[in-house]
């Protein structure tokens, strides 16, 4: 006896806007499409839901597409569907994406070739055991699962055994609760969780509408998820849904479920205009309880007729509410925990910042006290330098004596100004400025002459380029202080073939002074900190105040101090407004 292996039903989902194809085979799990990363086919587009729809093959080999309560719907051959049987050539539209159903062509074999009839003689078709696939609820919806077991539908059709129909209803409810339980464990976003649970509840109980309302901070009930059977609802606020005050008051005050078989005939709600004004005839509602706390309520509505809901549906709704309550509380507690952690982290960061500021203040106070003492000592030791003024007076015709005297006096003043500036900066005192129209080119040349006396500049190639008559309103001594600091930094940054350039030129309505060196450059991570107080890369040779003080002086002149750097070139630029006079 020859055996022929049973062939599984298979379809191909072919993208019309791309070359992608997905095979759907009998016995395999469903194929989900949507924007979520865990979907089998991930689609892009704002009009596509996270889990938009799914494809699967039922027990008799039909290819089914089911919409997963998407916002913009699933269309088959131009018509919007909730669930539909597909055929070869069917076209499915999801947002802007279109797909076509194709049947794969099986390979041609000798057994299927009519030219080889001898192979078929005496053959028996045997379905091997390993091709039998049992339904698995984790991979199927509850409806698919129940249908696969052959359990009757929820409808009391003529000829159905009443007990079997009742048993089928209980089993469907159990399978639905399993799906809801999975959703409660999987979803961490409260709104998404409630929306999915209401969609599943509507599928289990039937009807037109299912909704959940929760208490806000003021204990008022607010609709949080409203799901319609015939149309998608983006959210409860946009839906325009209004709660029935009579029903909500009854459920919340009595803390018990209610079943209304006929809204027009129920004496408990005979005065409720909001309930009678709608088309709904049957309603069930239960409170969401967690201990003694009432979080809100869950309800399902139906306009199909009187008695659409029974005690079985009310029991089911009570179980769902008892599952949803702790799940909502867990999400709330998790959110509170995250908020507390964020608050603790923010408080810790504030503490760290305050500690850093305290340390910074202590350092600045120490520098202020030290500089005050230094100022007194420096003045005493610099007094002999005032003799340079006497030398200049005694030798008025000696150019060298005049120049040397001027440099000595300038150095003395520079030392006193520097110590005094550090003292004011450390104490936070406001500096006073004396602004006068001055020629930047002349100032640059004087500074260049001054720094050339420094032993560091005697070992480098120092060049100066200055335009004539570039007048700005400045405090000349303060700008000279900034220039000397920048030139000293540039000279110390050079390495092989050291070179420093000082350029003075006009750019539009700005006068610019550029100090350029050919050193290694300033790394990015250091460049972000060089203007911070007490930050230095010179170790014991610096205190980290030079650039910060220089920037403050330039800003006081209405200008800016910036820099650009790359390996082999660093340029610091002082930009000052040109004098309108």
Summarize the structure.
The protein is α+β, with helices and mostly antiparallel strands and 581 residues long. It contains 13 helices and 23 strands.
Description:
There is one protein chain. With 581 residues, the chain is of the alpha+beta class. It is built from 13 helices and 23 strands. The chain has helices spanning 142-149, 162-186, 190-205, 236-239, 245-254, 273-276, 311-382, 387-394, 399-427, 440-451, 476-493, 524-527, 546-556; strands at 10-15, 21-25, 31-34, 41-42, 53-57, 63-67, 74-76, 79-81, 83-86, 91-94, 97-102, 209-215, 221-228, 258-260, 282-290, 293-302, 436-439, 461-466, 471-474, 499-507, 510-517, 560-566, 569-577. Residues 1-6 and 107-136 have low confidence and may be disordered.
Strand and helix layout:
Elements: E1 10-15, E2 21-25, E3 31-34, E4 41-42, E5 53-57, E6 63-67, E7 74-76, E8 79-81, E9 83-86, E10 91-94, E11 97-102, H1 142-149, H2 162-186, H3 190-205, E12 209-215, E13 221-228, H4 236-239, H5 245-254, E14 258-260, H6 273-276, E15 282-290, E16 293-302, H7 311-382, H8 387-394, H9 399-427, E17 436-439, H10 440-451, E18 461-466, E19 471-474, H11 476-493, E20 499-507, E21 510-517, H12 524-527, H13 546-556, E22 560-566, E23 569-577
Parallel strand pairs: 3-4, 18-20
Antiparallel strand pairs: 1-2, 1-11, 3-5, 5-6, 6-9, 7-8, 7-10, 10-11, 12-13, 12-16, 14-15, 15-16, 17-19, 20-21, 21-23, 22-23
